[in-house]
Write a structure and sequence with these properties.
Largest sheet: 5 strands, antiparallel
Number of domains: 2
Distance between the termini: 56 Å
CATH superfamily of the largest domain: endopeptidase domain like (from Nostoc punctiforme)
Strand order of the largest sheet: 4-3-2-1-5
Order of helices and strands: EEEEHEHHH
Structural class: alpha+beta
Shape: globular
Number of helices: 4
Mean pLDDT: 79
Number of strands: 5
Helix content: 25-40%
Amino acid sequence: MHSTLKELIAGDHIYVKRKGYFYTHHGIYAGNGQVLHFKGAIKEKKDPTVILSDIDTFLNDGTLQRRHYKHRLPHSKSLQMARAHLDQKGYSLVFNNCEHFATYCATGKKKSTQVHRIIGGAATLTLAVTGFFIRKKTSAKKEDPSVS
């Protein structure tokens, strides 16, 4: 859901779609047009750090969106947690990415739907390929009893 800067509350989990909608970049709105988030694009992730930047830098010409939760921490607590991570290093695409950071600040739980989708897709592909080869081998045994 698209949002405007006027609708945001300090502590909101915000995000923007990147690279032809291939992935999203997440942060915590800090108020006054500022965002706490892991710096940089994928190719700049050599030593990423949680930084405070202006919202235009965060959006990088993308469309502002706000994540809504049924159950979340109070906005003031989310902002406090995000500020406590300022200058934190330790980015990991799978275990500690920008979505993990923002979700943790908003809910107290690290989670990345992007990672779950990718891992789920990889697991499905692995199962499908494995199933194909098992069926192929089973079919070969039925046709030729000497194949083992």
